[in-house]
Amino acid sequence: MQDTTYELRRFVSTISGISPDHVEGLQKIGIETVADLIKHLPLRFEEHHGGVTIEEATVILGENERSPDLVTIEGEVAEIRPIRGWKRSKARVEVLLEDETGSLKINWFNQPWIAKKLHPDMRIRVHGSLSMYKGSVQMTNPRWEEIDGEECTTKVESGLCPVYPANELVSSTVISKLISEVLDEALPQIEDHFSIEERKKLAMPELREAYRMVHKPKEQNESKEGRRRIAYDELFLLQLGVMMKRHHRQTTLHAPSLRWDEKVKSRIEARIPFTLTESQQKVIGEIAHDVTNTVPMNRLLQGDVGSGKTVVALHAMLMAVVGDAQAALMAPTELLAEQHYGTIVEMLEGSSVSVGLLTSSLGAKDRKTLIEKVSNGELDIVVGTHALLTTDVVFSNIAVSIVDEQHRFGVHQRATLRNKRDDDKTVPHTLVMTATPIPRTLSLTIFGDLDVSTISGLPPGRSPITTRLVQPEDVSKVYSFFRERIDKGQQGYVVVPLVENTDSGMKAVLSHAKSLEQEYFNGKRVAFVHGRMKSEEREETMSAFREGNVDVLVATTVIEVGVDVANATMMVIEHADRFGLAQLHQLRGRVGRGELPGVCALIAAPTTNDAIERLNAIVETTDGFRIAEKDLEIRGPGELFGAKQSGIAPFKSARLPRDLELLRMARRNAVDYIQHDPLLKDAELLRKRLLSKYGESLGLGDVA
Ligand code: ADP
Ligand code: MG
What we know:
By secondary structure, the chain is an alpha/beta fold.
């Protein structure tokens, strides 16, 4: 066999003609090897007219003001004039390019360095689209390159030209050249993990052919066909991992089976101070069904802000306690853990259930005592933050583990709570709760291993929330209105982005609290909380607020989740354009939790399109599901729900929700695969690829 110069594993630095700058530029976009380079797919294709003369270019443009077609023109630089604009972004470099047929004006906006790189008499090739300006043909911001002295100036080929994601060190043109250099040798080395029969069933090309199609398509449709195969593989591999994990949980792992009968039911319900809604009862039924089984529960409980998830969690935990086992509830912030602890202690007052609170601000001595009680079984329920995950926290007998507000944690950072005597096959039943509903597309991907329960609607007796977007210059109206509500005995929140003043011009907790007190809330009790406070101090302020001894609470987003004070009816969010959509929804959910109607004022003068969209969405609807879908649309799935923290890289060529059909197909096929061959023993290559891609992030190491 012939020697292969460009083995897939070789570093790109060995490609002939590559410069150190290119290597660095590629590294910045995650490309180190020839294989990485091949996996770098074009964003789109451009239709090219090959090299044309300036005269021919004028003909192409014809009578049009501009033409979308791209042309390549070679010529000599005749004049270079840097022109300062009335503002920086309008600064431009004006160049006159000449060939034997005429001259062409070129403008490069906002790229002043180009003036330094060019010099008169230099031969360059420019590549861009044409327009007509004041009667002469022009080109604006074309790509360009110098024509080498030796290079013969033959005409550039016409056809489809790929445009690759690039950066300031390595251009799309260079990437295209590098790929052309290695492609022919690289392709035959690409092995397919699907057989011919499988490919036939999928109606998809062989993997190496798919890569050829995306880099060097003969026509636009080919590039789509190639992309479809590559996107499918991406989705399929993740589905396969998720299904493999699910299968492992269902067949290999086990959890204690808990009792659930009328007696247990009435004992637990006696502890709950209100009638459960139908929806709450339904999800409790689903959870109960799971935990009476020895297959570990892996369930997601989603319900909008204020829908009453906490009592459902308590219910599940009490099932463990009735079964002589322990339960834990993990919250993303100390504030929330403290509040859950308070709620639970209150509901369980007078019972024999013992409850503990473990956060990282617990002193060393108290901590030691507490984890002793955890490990000797003295505590039935432990509430805490991620401090619960520390290795020295070992339970005597935990049966139910609950994670609140999952999106704040990494997706797979759960179920690591351990028992003393456990082998690695015994795990607690896990319930994950979120107020950020998971759009269907995501529930099929990274959350594919979770069963989903949904609480729909809110408990009775809630009043609607009115949301208003207010320009910063009208802010005094908002605070005057706020003051009126306080005078009536109600309370409220003011959220700002910062703790302390910086020179960003944004409001900060400490100074804003002070100025509000002076300007609007004279004689009222204004207090503040933020994440950098000592937890005792914060807890003191929070309980003062809960008890109605504080009127206005100025805070950072520490109050984003869970804080529950029914008498608070006003929410003012300063610099609202700085917050994410889910975050705004959560913050707003702090009001309207009682019978008094809530008002949320968003103070902002948004400037970016994203911010405008976010604020419009939040004003238009209070439906958490619609907000989540909108959020997905604006931000894309990669950023949501701990997908980033989970270490799962965003898809490279699959796009959701666009590729939903492809995803469904991938899911069906993955289920099929795992049913027939759970450990992929007969699919060596697929297994290898799966483990190298998701082994770590999905925790497949001990599975396969
Ligand atoms: P979230 O789902 O946002 O965590 P919570 O569990 O904090 O919501 O519940 C919000 C409020 O609603 C709490 O004060 C809780 O006591 C109350 N609540 C929950 N369920 C009911 C119910 N069935 N009837 C009346 N109030 C309820
Ligand atoms: Mg909650």
